[in-house]
Amino acid sequence: MGQQIIAFYHEDMKKHYMGKSHLETPVRLDILINSLKQSEFDVKWIKAKQGLEEDVFSVHSKELLKYIKLATEKAPTWITADTRTNKYTYYSAMLAVGASKHAALASFNEKKIAVALTRPPGHHATENAAMGFCFFNNAAVAAKTLLKEKGLNKVLIYDIDNHYGNGTASIFFKTDKVLTTSIHCDPYECYPGVGFPNEIGSGDGIGHNINVPTPVYSNNNDWLYALKSTIIPVIQEYEPEAVIVSAGFDALKGDPYGKLSLNYDAFEYAGKLLVDSLPKKVRKKIVLVIEGGYKLPDLGEAFIYFLRGLTGKGMSLPKQMPVSRIAKKYTSHAQGYIRKYWRI
Predict the structure, then answer these.
(1) CATH code for the domain of 42
(2) Which residues form the domain of 277?
(3) Nearest-angstrom CA–CA distance, 135 and 115
(4) What is the distance, to the nearest Å, from the Cα of residue 113 to the centroid of all Cα atoms in its chain?
(5) Could you tell me if 53 and 63 are in contact, meaning their C-beta atoms sit under 8 angstroms apart?
(6) Bridging pattern class, strands 242-247 and 155-159
(7) Is 16 considered catalytic here?
(8) What's the alpha-carbon Rg for the chain, to the nearest Å?
(9) 306 and 298 in contact (C-beta within 8 Å)?
(10) Confidence of residue 187 (pLDDT cuts 50, 70, 90)
């Protein structure tokens, strides 16, 4: 058997449903679960429990929780043009919160990579608002859990979704206890229209919100060049005590909601780059929280490739990687802001 991975999941997360035409669909979880079951990993399955209201309040306002409850009771409720409730939304979202919280604790305590198979996703949910298919911010709850219950002072959030995790960034924008990093599609071209390099944080958090936009239709080389030359050196200097991955796979070429052009190898490299940048004692204190990924035939493979990278089985980057001129221009622009705070 391969390396053991802890997976938190509950069947009822599939009860949240936003309609036949919506690709944030329950089958996404079936695909990820089946991929794990068929993989080389030794998976320890744990039935997720609902999170507590206190977990939600650690990152969200009481008003938002009340609103999601009411929107669920009165379902279907369109919260935004692309985000709606059914009668199970609140319940499913609280299961996702609980899965994320307990995966973070299990990973840290047992020193094993953990996966919170979460649905609905979360990284667009801000303190006061649900949006972008997201109701509560699962990654933020996981990070806050480690800060509060384990007394950590340096948690990394590594967001590889096609879309900027605007909710996560806004929640931790003013603290240096969480380093939020995101490589994502050009905000001028992709939802949510923010996530520019100058959005660097404020107050105690200045320099701790790292945004690296990439051109639309970036291929593996362009995307990995940006990741390796900007985010990875910051992680090395930061030396986190634990890692939360906002694991979105909608940067795959042909994803109906994404505008990048990656293949499986990019995710394997991204996992390998991350784990190699961490202190040795942190390399198994990693939690994956599932975000986007809507190219259903390829979703499971991208997920497993990323896990292979995280577990040290991934390939090292080729020494020669031709990079486009526009990708270098985008990356150089981001570096101009990051260099004010980090050695890159």
Answers:
(1) 3.40.800.20
(2) 4-338
(3) 19
(4) 15
(5) no
(6) parallel
(7) no
(8) 18
(9) no
(10) very high
Q: Is 286 exposed, middle or buried (0-12, 13-18, 19+ CB in 10 A)?
A: buried
Q: Name the one residue in this structure whose structure tokens are 């990051």.
A: 338
Residue 27 lies in a domain: yes
Does the residue 49 lie in any domain?
yes
Cβ-contact 76, 84 below 8 angstroms: yes
Given 10, 102, 124, 184, which residue is catalytic?
124
d(CA 92, CA 118): 9
Q: Contact 90/130 with Cβ under 8 angstroms?
A: no
Count: domains in the chain: 1
Tens digit of pLDDT for each residue in 220-275?
Answer: 999 999 999 999 999 999 999 999 999 999 999 999 999 999 999 999 999 999 99
- Helices 138-149 & 89-110 angle (0-180, nearest 10): 40
Predicted TM-score (pTM) of the model is 0.97
Q: Is the CB of residue 172 less than 8 Å from the CB of residue 205?
A: yes
Residues contacting 153, CB < 8 A, separation 6+? 147, 177, 241
Which contiguous run of DSSP H or E holds residue 270?
helix 264-277
The count of residues in the chain is 344
